[in-house]
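Q: PXK, please. Structure only.
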Amino acid sequence: MKIKNQPKERLVLSWADLGPDKYLSDKDFQCLIKLLPSCLHPYIYRVTFATANESSALLIRMFNEKGTLKDLIYKAKPKDPFLKKYCNPKKVQGLELQQIKTYGRQVLEVLKFLHDKGFPYGHLHASNVMLDGDTCRLLDLENSLLGLPSFYRSYFSQFRKINTLESVDVHCFGHLLYEMTYGRPPDSVPVDSFPPAPSMAVVAVLESTLSCEACKNGMPTVSRLLQMPLFSDVLLTTSEKPQFKIPTKLKEALRIAKECIEKRLIEEQKQIHQHRRLTRAQSHHGSEEERKKRKILARKKSKRSAVENSEEHSAKYSNSNNSGN
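A: Structure for PXK:
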């Protein structure tokens, strides 16, 4: 987009329909969308205009020549098509350790800010982090208000301990950190073993968010991650004071919507867990070993039945002879 009286300024318009997790009333939803341009934070990408109706939302932001964190990782040009940018990278290479530390710390700072405000996010991934010089700025805060599904939902819906939006953000941060470190997403999650990294401090954070143990036992808090050696010594130089005033009535509406989103996630995880148990049971009973066991049991039962029938027949024959005498 371009502004008529400022033709050199380029803007990006994004528009989206409502998703399955939209639990806000139409009035609260529209009020919260219109609040987004008032959100000022050094690590949130500014919304210049936002509006909504009962079925969708429209937002305008400044176009950024540098592109997203994913563009940096894949050494891609922001305006190139998606497939060209990400589906066949010429060279898979992670970022330098200092970049990993700085960008990771900035993302964690803004997640903590949103969690403290009671604002649900759940949409962290490398394409939702805009780069502005050496600064990361989070995109698409509106996605949770719209009720859109998370990019990594198919991963965390497998693990029943990842059942709050805060723990979802931490798990998604693990995916982001992996991609920053190795230049590509993990092949599967949970991750059994991590390739060599620029520092063991990176592996420690990855293990706390993507390992089997972490997925089974639950995620650390954002505050806990900020205290880990990888991020604790990062010096942030920004002087911009965060501002995001949400009226009390809308905070309550956000709290209720967040609980509804988490409740639907827990129900989905429960169904997946039950389906897995059923599949395992069917697989177990259908295995060659189990079929052999059942055949052996059937033969034994058949022999036992034959012996019992023979004994019964002999007893009847003996009784009939006795009564004849």
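A: Brief note, in case it's useful. The longest strand covers residues 6-17.
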